[in-house]
Amino acid sequence: MRQSVTRLLLACCSVATLAGDVHAVRIMTNPATSPTDQFDNIALTPDGNTIVATATFFPEDKDRVYSLPVPANPAVDMPLVTQLSTSGGAFTYDVAFAPVISPDGQTILFAHDGNSTASNTIYTMPITGEGSSAFTGLLGAAPNLASPGDGSSHPIYSGTDVFFLNNNAGFGGSIPTFPASPVPYDGSPDWDMIYKRNSAGTVTAVTAPGDGDIDGGLFAVTPNGSSIVYAPDNPVRVGTDKSGIRPKLFTISTSGGTSTEIPLTATAHDFTIANQLQVTPNGQNVLFIGDYETIGKNELFSVPLAGGTPTRISDDLYWAGDVSSFAIAPSGTHVAYAAGQNNGANHELFQTPITGGTGNSVRVSEPAPINSGIFDVSPSAEGGQMVYSNDSSQIYYLGDLTTAEVNDLYVVDTTAKAGLVPSPFTFVGPSGGDFFTESNWEDAQGNNPPANTINPGSPIRHALLIDGDTVGVIGNGREADFQVGGSLELTAGSFLDFTNLGTELDFNNGSGLKLTDATIKVHQDIFLEGTNVLSGGTIESTDDDIEFQDFHKTSINGTTFITGANSCLADNCNLIFENSATSITGATFEAADSIGLRYEVDLTVHDTALSTRGMGGDLDNHPGGPGWGNVEDVFTNGPQAAGSTLTLNGSSTLLANSIHEGVSLVLDGTSVATLLADPGGHPGDPIGGFDLVDSNFDGTITFMSAGAELITLNASASDARAKVINGLTGLSYLDDPTAWNVTNWDGLSVLASLKLVGSSLAGDFDNDNDVDGADFLLAQQEADPAAAVAAWSANYGASLSTPNATGVPEPASLALLLTAFGVCGPGRRTRQI
């Protein structure tokens, strides 16, 4: 299916002359670009004489394939844009992604959705164009499919072979249909495989279903044509499956067979390879975009095909900046990338050595005409946003740097470009001044944002900074809607006051929020779906939800989150998590209603306090109280909580009622969960009280440490013994009650304290009856860390079944352990391939 991914064609030979002008030159085309006529993706023919593009030019209203000659003098010439794919008069279709040109320059491959299927399929035409109203399918006559797939896209030439994605081939012909209720995380199934079509027209599979789902832009053929490098995604097979989880790289022969993982040094957080990967011209390394170093920040990395620790190639980025796409110079010495490097709101084009290095990049694109997030080098990750000339001296790229929202074609040499450096707009208005008044914001040059670019309910694409000030809002029903590239930073002492009736704060995918010891208060919803860097301070919705939505990537250190401190709107005041990509330490979560987890979220908190009140929207009949809210799917269009896990680590605490609707709770470290706090008896409450763990689902409570504790304040409505698990043995309380400090629990009665029986072995801090590397981390959390580490060191390797004959580990191995735990630390669990 059509994804936002990138595939760049770098083959080009001749070089346009910039006539001594080192500035970027906008290529003026005939017809000219306009809000309805503009470029989407570009490629160059191998001889470098022709640009082939997907674009929209009148009279067409959808993307078609066009060509234009490379101008000899771009500053003067006005090349004619010629349509190559057939007219839309007889067909309704929309070309997707960048066109692909054969190595001999004679054939163009392109994908569009004008077939009898609902998906894109690949078509072929001569470099001179179709010349008729007929499409020629790469895979045959209509429906132009390779069984068992239902579409095709993202072709790659390797000699005369064509590799492509066979849409949904992983289902083997049995593609599911997701029910509308409960609402799925991804609306459509997705399990694409790599296939090959040879010069004789024979089509064969390269990857197998077990190799995962492969997305466009995330597979590449090595220069010698022997292997394919790819980053697999999770197949979307059921409604709770998530796409966009790619923490691994693999290689596979272009003839198929068994794939081999490229070993990457582990990170302390879940990371994802995104948008694009490419093999270097010498075939030694693969470059990829991902948040390998910092959660939520997509940067450019390089790693040998043999594996190792990825090296960051892109330069230091703005906190909310990302790399969206890149191109490797044919010389193999440099790489160009588009990124929000100076300011997350402004994408610019940079070049850096292929080896990277901080401070080695130069901006090669012309600066925006003014400091505004509405002017960018194209931030699209779809493919074909930039391409080098064959001698690597020039770059053709797309961007709306002349007219906002109009993608023009530019050519530039690779020297540094001086001029305006984008900067955030800082609040300079009076204390309590209006957020939505542009004159209250100034950039480093003293300029205000353009008029009507910070309007209620309209997309905000600027980088905004509140530096110790109080900012309010005039009027009710106002929404700050941050879109791709938009960001908001609050420094220590800042206060964003959105408590007027009906105000909301919305950070969409691709936006960012950074908060350091500051306060945000909003009357209604706070939606966090972008990159969030939160340290200290408070974020509060006084009457509604705080939602960490689908694509958020979040780091939290010591921040307090509060919902419903004033009252609750109907069925609201929840804290909701829909994504696992979160690092949480030392935080406080206070939900006036419940804590929501959905779509198989794995949420781990460290030294964090979570509490609920169960108020909901029914204040008359269910007033709520400490711990009266559940851990569940809080939406009425669910339940989609099954398979989600909340893990309490360190000294974390949870005060709630039921572990509900299929959520599982894991207790580790010295964490304490106090549950069944609601005494019941209110209208609408279940007769007989509440389950400790919902008896209608497969959720459990698992103890991973003898230091963890479960307390219940009221009796359970159902026997929970089979759902309380000793994680050290895998046995439930029902299977082995002797492992617990209470051996006669009936699964119903109130528990003053339930814990695993501790180990008698010195240094065994996780109480699993042996002293190993895991105990070292816990030793550092003891009241006397030095003494605890000494006990661990003295007994390392011992177990209750095997005496420690060797005592202290050898110095080299001990040092290795200490280094490993110090650098890597424990990672969170994420459902992966």
TrEMBL record:
Query: InterPro entries of this UniProt entry?
Result: 6-blade_b-propeller_TolB-like, WD40
* Family matches, as Gene3D superfamilies: TolB, C-terminal domain (2.120.10.30)
Q: Which UniProt keywords apply?
A: Signal
Q: Where is the signal peptide?
A: 1-24
Q: Which family does it belong to?
A: Belongs to the TolB family.
PANTHER family the record matches = PROTEIN TOLB (PTHR36842:SF1), PROTEIN TOLB HOMOLOG (PTHR36842)
Protein known as: Translocation protein TolB
